[in-house]
Give the backbone structure.
Amino acid sequence: MASGVTFWFFFAHLLLQIFKLNAKVPAIIVFGDSSVDSGNNNEISTVLKSNFEPYGRDFIGKQPTGRFSNGRIPTDFISEAFMIKPIIPAYLDPTYNISEFATGVCFASAGTGYDNATSDVLSVIPLWQEMDYYKEYQEKLRGYLGKEKANGILGEALYLISIGTNDFLENYYIFPSRSKQYSVEEYRDFLLGIAKDFISELYQLGGRKIAISGLPPMGCLPLERTTKIFSGTDCVEKYNSVALDFNGKLQEMIKRLNKELPGIRLVLANPYDILLDIIHNPLKYGFVDAAKACCGTGMFEMSYLCNKRIPFTCPDASKYVFWDAFHLTEKTNWIIADHLVKTSLAEFL
């Protein structure tokens, strides 16, 4: 009996190695903000952190990692769906090394944006610095695997970019400098110009399979509903309209770049429609509350305001769409990741 078990274990292991050898995507490389940050902010001097309880209470090992959720984030689930690994480590996490980063690495920083002024608000990693870390990573990977093999991985890797919400909600609509300098349409075009340059640089560095996220229905975040509570607790439609407009222009830019950059496969991984449907029809997805978050009162708590001393935090996060007032629960992250894998990311499987 034992020999039979050993045989099937060996056979399953062999199949997994074959799948990996034939995988179209050998690694997933992540840029962006708190929607995909797996812990880089732990290692920098900023007030925007989540490496404490109750964050991570449903994560593997029930440990807070710096992910802004009760558990895993969308990029973790996407990595698992591509049969790579169940979590994508943060580049600045000292407990990981280049051998683990070779199959997936995250450069994202919570609170950042396309605009350098956005990253300055909470002293987080700007997008240009994420790119510099990636260039450093490339050299480390070549040193570890050799130039030819490393370049092969970098060329076949899937690059995921999720960013932009903070530019509007943390910067443009709060501080006067950008809103005095730009109309919202002009600011949109300013951000899209940065996105175009970032993608073009990734392309020049060897990236070919790139998915860039659109903006979510950011007027439906609990924090925004709370901020506008005197005008009702429904979603702030002005913010949702900005997100829809941005996403439409982003799609147009993607079409142009697919024509201009030979060999690139650039797609829009858009969470807007699926998340809005979850928010409008929570029972359909097994949720009981889509307006308030699980942590604390569910109206304004995030980062250090969402801590283990708050007595109101819900016992079961899977019943809630939002974990804190700005970020999603693990269950919502899984639903969105599953949707993206079956739609915009399917061509890379």
Summary: The longest helix spans residues 237-260. The two ends are 37 Å apart (CA to CA).
